TrEMBL record:
GO CC term, one of those recorded: nucleus
Entry keywords, A to Z: Exonuclease, Hydrolase, Nuclease, RNA-binding
Higher taxonomy: Eukaryota, Metazoa, Chordata, Craniata, Vertebrata
Protein name in UniProt: RNA exonuclease 5-like
Database matches in Gene3D superfamilies: 3.30.70.330, Ribonuclease H-like superfamily/Ribonuclease H
């Protein structure tokens, strides 16, 4: 939430808000894009895939990919859990799964031919590095075993047998949650159910003015639970918040506030709320105050627990995506609900909301809801029902004759992935070169070329539910053109994008001085001094694309000892389209911003003006200590400024809601560089338009360029020397390869358009291993929203 005061505190001192005009720019952009946003809201209910933040920069394996395919094709109804490394939202709406495997291509090939692969780079929003497998990926997918669920309710649905008495089989708790004891994530209300039951959900009508908590996309079984309860009064505008209570997972009350409704109160509901006019008379706490406190206090992975919690969230005008509702845990037949006091007395053996008390105690109610959820998670659905069937649900389980007779053991069934799919009535197909895979021959088609594979697949009258396509043509081409040499050429081209040449430098300049000069722009990988008989130059290589970009924009033209140094990208044949590649990468990172926090010595040099030999020295963004040292002057002591997520959020939250901050920390040093992800592109644009104001606050900013799944741009390259790079001319093989990549991209685009709406499409560049090393592949994922 944006600060409400005219000043905010940063690093122990007060400063004015940055760029008030930026806020007007954000409002204007939101107004212009408002209609477009509303039109796109229904699509948010469609299936979508995202990689967990802590796994984004970790390569996935063939087993990880298979784990995703199992869940996408079968889901929780078959007892398959969400993958450990990603989240597939609204899995039940997935209509088909299509996997395309491209042999011979690596992650480096993708980024070398980034401009050519227009379909792949624009239509697949999720990318992750893929570790090459020593075994055939298609064979691994079809021979994989689906984990057999040990939940009797799942076994009953799919195998037709169960050891449960009939009374338990049809119990509403068992039919909803099964019998297996699970972690808390099994009971968090799915987003589609929240939408269906009219809970406050981001982007839905009627909730546009609600405040969103800073929550992660997905919670875990170790996420903290918080019990919440509110009391309301009736005002001229309807029910409004009058008191809120919050308890943590240990049962300790962390919030208990009376709240002054903004409108005239008609009825205090004292009998139920316990709130009187006298109690509210001296209160100055507002709804906004409470929202701010809750948003600050709740951890990003907090799970809120309450009884009919949607009413409390509406009163708070708060959107929180991770909730457990005890009225839906201890469920009754036909959608009816128990009162909180009834469940508490039956399960916890404790009385609340008694007649002798005036009104409800929200702390007591929040604690009861929390303990009921903890009890349900600890015991599991089956034990909860068996222990409290009579006292809570009002009937006993009477075993019928068929329950007493020993059930005949069901014959063991194959758990191979294609067999399980076919038992669910879902078709399977493989198209590619002849392989030894565990699949009926009737479901296989063998071809020797990509064109034949794709033409045959698109010629089918009905798309199979699971289809795996293997494209071998490019692999054959690469084998003919010496794969190790091709990979070396690819890596050299990519590394050039992180290199700048600087000079001429003053005579006697050292590598250490150059390092101090350029480190303000980003983490450095290597510096090479280029000494000629007359002048000194330097080749500076950054870890990130953004470092080179900032160096060119902010250091070019710096005057040192009266001579202007030029900072530019190397002029190689392979770099002629570098600007187009960088523009495309910037467009794909439309909500991400790169920021550098300067220390005092760097900051002082942003607008420094000094007299050197009677001329004015205008240093744009150098380390002033380096400039002064080279100019024969004494530098002032440096003041270090530590960059933290809190300070970044505070500064850049003024331009728009910040979704995530990634600090780029070098070993043994404070973080000075950060990647900031805004919830929408207008936040990034507002920050960029205020770059001059941010520079006064010791920040340098530029659009983010490095793809999110890479820890650094150098992760897609291997070491090459400047001499090797300068001799990497564009050959006829390069031109032929670019044509082949363009043809592949167009074919994949036609395939993508052919897939039914709601298809999970996965394209895997398999990468490869050789005597020259391991060359990672790339996995691209998207759910097709248009057929």
């Amino acid at each position: 939430m944006e600060p409400s005061s005219a000043e905010v505190t940063c690093n122990g001192r007060k400063r004015k808000r940055i760029a008030p005009a930026a806020h007007e720019e954000v409002k204007r952009l939101k107004t212009e894009e408002g209609d477009e946003t509303l039109e796109s809201e229904p699509s948010s209910r469609s299936p979508r895939i995202s990689v967990l933040p802590d796994r984004l920069q970790q390569p996935i394996t063939a087993n990880d990919l298979t784990e995703l395919l199992h869940y996408a094709a079968l889901g929780k109804t078959a007892g398959v859990e969400q993958p450990s490394w990603c989240r597939l939202h609204h899995q039940k709406k997935v209509k088909a799964v299509n996997v395309v495997m491209i042999e011979g291509l690596t992650q480096s090939h993708f980024y070398k031919h980034y401009l050519t692969l227009q379909h792949l780079r624009t239509n697949y929003s999720t990318r992750v590095t893929f570790t090459p497998s020593s075994t055939d990926l298609a064979s691994g997918i079809f021979s994989s075993e689906v984990p057999e669920s040990d939940d009797p309710s799942v076994s009953q649905r799919h195998n037709g047998s169960s050891d449960l008495p009939k009374g338990l089989r049809i119990h509403p708790v068992i039919t909803k949650f099964g019998t297996k004891r699970r972690g808390l994530t099994a009971y968090v209300l799915p987003e589609e159910e929240m939408v269906k039951k009219r809970w406050p959900v981001k982007g839905m009508p009627d909730f546009q003015d609600f405040v969103c908590t800073d929550s992660v996309d997905c919670v875990t079984d170790s996420s903290p639970l918080y019990g919440l309860d509110c009391e309301m009064c009736l005002t001229e505008k309807g029910n409004e918040l009058a008191r809120v209570s919050l308890v943590d997972s240990d049962g300790k009350c962390v919030v208990d506030e009376l709240v002054k409704p903004p409108n005239r109160i008609i009825n205090h509901f004292t009998r139920f709320s316990g709130i009187t006019a006298a109690m509210l008379r001296p209160i100055t706490t507002t709804l906004r105050n409470v929202q701010t406190r809750l948003k600050t206090l709740l951890p990003s992975d907090a799970v809120l627990v309450g009884h009919s919690l949607n009413n409390d969230l509406v009163a708070l005008k708060l959107i929180h995506p991770h909730v457990i509702d005890t009225s839906l845990l201890y469920r009754r037949e036909f959608g009816q609900r128990f009162k909180l006091k009834v469940i508490t007395e039956s399960v916890l053996n404790r009385q609340i909301q008694t007649e002798e008390k005036t009104g409800h105690n929200p702390i007591e109610d929040a604690l009861a809801a929390l303990e009921l959820a903890q009890y349900f998670i600890k015991k599991g659905p089956r034990q909860v029902v068996e222990l409290h069937m009579e006292e809570l649900w009002g009937y006993r389980i009477i075993k019928e004759p068929e329950d007493l007779a020993p059930a005949e053991p069901a014959p063991p069934q194959s758990q191979r992935f294609p067999d399980v799919l076919q038992r669910h009535g879902r078709s399977v197909a493989f198209l590619g070169k002849r392989s030894d895979i565990a699949l009926d021959l009737s479901n296989q088609q063998w071809f020797n070329s990509d064109k034949e594979v794709l033409a045959s697949f698109r010629g089918q009258t009905r798309c199979p539910f699971l289809s795996v396509l293997q494209l071998p043509s490019l692999s054959s081409h690469l084998k003919k053109s010496f794969p190790h040499l091709e990979q070396q050429r690819v890596c050299a081209h990519l590394r050039d994008l992180c290199v700048v040449l600087a000079g001429p430098l003053p005579a006697g300049s050292s590598e250490q001085e150059v390092r101090r000069l350029f480190r303000c722009c980003g983490p450095l990988r290597n510096i090479k001094m280029l000494n000629t008989t007359v002048r000194v130059h330097a080749e500076v290589e950054f870890e990130l694309l953004e470092g080179a970009e900032l160096a060119v924009k902010t250091l070019n033209g710096l005057n040192m000892q009266g001579q202007s140094i030029k900072v530019q990208r190397p002029v190689y044949e392979s770099m002629l389209d570098a600007d187009l590649t960088l523009d495309a990468l910037m467009c794909d990172n439309n909500t991400h911003l790169y920021a550098v926090k300067l220390n005092s010595s760097m900051a002082d040099s942003v607008h420094i003006s000094e007299r050197v030999n009677g001329h004015t020295l205008n240093a744009k963004c150098s380390d002033v200590a380096s400039v002064q040292k080279v100019n024969g002057q004494h530098s002032q002591p440096k003041t270090k400024s530590k960059l933290s997520e809190e300070t970044v959020r505070e500064t850049f939250g003024l331009f728009g809601s910040v979704e995530r901050v990634a600090l780029l920390q070098q070993s043994g040093k404070h973080a000075r560089h950060a990647i900031i992800r805004f919830e929408s592109s207008e936040g990034k644009r507002a920050a960029l338009s205020s770059s001059e104001d941010l520079r006064k606050e010791n920040y340098l900013v530029c659009p983010s360029l490095t793809p999110h799944h890479l820890p650094s741009w150098t992760a897609v390259t291997t070491p090459t020397t400047s001499e090797e790079r300068s001799h990497m001319h564009i050959s006829s093989q390069d031109e032929e390869m670019d044509l082949l990549m363009g043809k592949l991209d167009r074919r994949l685009q036609k395939l993508f358009r052919y897939l039914p709406e709601g298809t999970l499409s996965v394209v895997v560049l398999l990468g490869h291993t050789s005597d020259h090393g391991l060359f990672p592949g790339l996995c691209l994922m998207e759910v097709n929203q248009e057929s």
